[in-house]
Amino acid sequence: MSDKNTLFLATRKGLAVCSRRAGGWKITSTHFDGVPVTIAYEDERNGAWWACLSHGHWGVKLHRSFDRGANWEEVAAPAYPEGAEVKEGEPAATQYLWAMQHGGHSKPGRLWLGTIPGGLFRSDNGGDSFELVESLWNHPSRPKNWFGGGFDHPGIHSIVLDPRDDNHLYIGISCAGVFESLDGGQSWMPRNKGMRADYLPDPHTEVGHDPHLLLAAPSNPDVLWQQNHCGIFVSTDRAANWADVSETAGPARFGFAIAIADDNPYQAWVAPALSDEKRVAIGHSLCICRTDDGGQSWQAQRNGLPQEHCYDIIYRHALAASGDDIAFGTTTGNAFFSTDRGDSWQVLSHYLPMVHAVRFAG
């Protein structure tokens, strides 16, 4: 069992907060009813809760709470500086807040935020204000080699901080690839060797890849995993090289989400889907796939999940692992959890809006 007793379900119509109960989870409060919540995040350093909102009319909003959601305050959302352009002649504006990560224990005021159209923002005052990381925005690869995937513009959906070194971080960009910084974001290097971009004339291009989600193993941050548009990839050498560990004849290949065990860098879960074009459950049958050996083999976990007439898929942030607990939410508003690492599943809710993100909290 995990030591985390709170679960965030960020949905198209608000944030549902779940609490652990005997034998499972129960929704105990809701927030921002009717408003899309793209990410909900807890800063483990101070217990602050963060909610990233995407109003259809008012645009992006950023809220935080220091009392576990009893009260929320709005803070200024990241804004691109005057003169910043996505491409020549098109001014940059924050369209979506897609990733959040604290800046480490040696930098208690630092927070990172990833956005569409591809800008990374940093705060050094606990989120009171954010500034664009110009070193990444001005990377020479961005104007010609970054582009949108499911959205019109590139987006930063993954921010991975090395727990051993607060100046060492990775980001995942759709579409550009994985980038690494060793100096707190002052400089950036693409880390895409071994990945494939099957949709490009040169599949092995240095920049132009589409990682759907990037994570580092909590028990060994030198091991990184990604669910990519073109398969499942793992690196055991700090993203210097990537290996494709997709199934050739099984479901573990295309998808959006990935999760890694807290205590085993080679145990991971993915949520398969049928192709980018169709985006439905494979065979109308919902499963989560687990590997215990670094992707050499995969097991489809189906016990307790619908096996017919199912169209659900799982978005990139909507699968989470903590201890023995696994939870996920789907595009059709179903949420499931497991207390035995996916061997069996129970229903949390069938009545949610589309689930954008799932995350365990303290």
Descriptive report:
By secondary structure, the chain is mainly beta. It has one domain (about 5-85, about 95-360): Methylamine Dehydrogenase, Chain H. Helices cover about 0% and strands about 45% of the residues. The protein is built from 2 helices and 30 strands. A hairpin with an 8-residue loop joins strand 10 (about 95-100) and strand 11. The protein is globular and about 55 Å long. It starts with 5 loop residues before the first strand and ends with a strand. The mean pLDDT is about 95.
Radius of gyration: 19 Å
Total helical segments:
2
Q: Into which percent range does the helicity of residues fall?
A: under 10%
CATH topology: Methylamine Dehydrogenase, Chain H
Which CATH first-tier class would you pick? Answer: Mainly Beta
* Architecture per CATH nomenclature, i.e. the level-2 architecture: 7 Propeller
Give start-end ranges of low-pLDDT stretches: none
Amino-to-carboxy terminus distance = 13 Å
User: Widest sheet: strand order?
Assistant: 3-2-1-30
How many structural units, i.e. domains? Answer: 1
Q: What is the general shape?
A: globular
Relative strand content = 35-45%
Main sheet summary: 4 strands, antiparallel
Say how many strands there are.
30
Please tell me the overall pLDDT.
97
Helix-strand makeup class:
mainly beta
| CATH homologous superfamily grouping | YVTN repeat-like/Quinoprotein amine dehydrogenase
